[in-house]
Amino acid sequence: MVYINTPREAEFNAVARMRSLGYLDAHVCEPGADGGVDAISERALGQVKHKGSQVGRPDIQRLYGARGDRTHLDLLFFSASGYSRHAVDYADEAGIMLFTYDLSGELEPANDAAYALAESGYDGFEYSDDEYVENEAPRPLDITDRGPAGHSGRLYNQIGVCSAVLGTVGLVAAERWSTAIGLLLWTFALFCWIVGWSVGRSSR
């Protein structure tokens, strides 16, 4: 499991999610550009708040103000800490889509406008935030060799392969040589499978 640890990573995650929602040209804005907006496409503006307290009405109003007279642009807000009741009410009135995200980057709609967009286009895939290439479709998330969780997942796969090999050898041994040897190998294969299952479960 890959976790979002910085505001910049949260911005790249928001861009990937915007693309999966249909804003295929979405990209991260340079710091300070476009009135503090974090992500932009030809059809939408996105704002991201990573950690901290709940997003309040003033934060939503700033995103609305950043749009100015570009009323054709959709507005999306991504928060890791949720929204106040006043923020949700204002967003509903202004047609702003509110999403929360967890540390793995998964989105959850937080108001009716966001639910409507998610149901119409969100595919739920995970994407890598390591590298952004303009106008390139998001690529599947690669979690190999990314910290303890990535190594655990790879170890789980290796143990699973070893268990399958031991089980096959045990079957051959039981038929050709000794039932006792086959049973011993099967027991060890089962033990390896249990260990692998435990490792894989802990990496999620």
Query: In order across it, which strands form the biggest sheet?
Result: 1-2-3-4-5-6
Strand content: 5-15%
Mean pLDDT: 76
Distance between the termini: 6 Å
Question: What is the count of distinct domains?
Answer: 2
Please state the oligomeric state of the protein chains shown.
single chain
Helix percentage: 40-55%
Outline type: elongated
As for the CATH topology of the largest domain, it is Trna Endonuclease, Chain: A, domain 1
Could you say which structural class the secondary elements and strand pairing correspond to?
alpha/beta
**Count of DSSP H/I helices:** 6
**DSSP E strands, number:** 6
Walk me through the topology:
Elements: H1 7-20, E1 27-28, E2 39-40, E3 44-49, H2 57-67, E4 74-79, H3 85-94, E5 97-101, E6 107-109, H4 112-121, H5 147-176, H6 179-202
Parallel strand pairs: 3-4, 4-5
Antiparallel strand pairs: 1-2, 2-3, 5-6
Helix pairs in contact: 2-3, 5-6
Give a quick set of tags describing it:
204 residues, alpha/beta, Trna Endonuclease, Chain: A, domain 1, 2 domains, 6-stranded mixed β-sheet, 6 strands, elongated
Can you describe what's shown?
- This protein has 204 residues and is of the alpha/beta class.
- It has two domains: 115 residues, Trna Endonuclease, Chain: A, domain 1, CATH 3.40.1350; 56 residues.
- Helices cover 49% and strands 12% of the residues.
- The protein has six helices and six strands; from the N terminus they run αβββαβαββααα.
- A six-stranded mixed sheet has the order 1-2-3-4-5-6, sandwiched between helices.
- The N and C termini lie close together (6 Å).
- About 15% of the residues have low confidence.
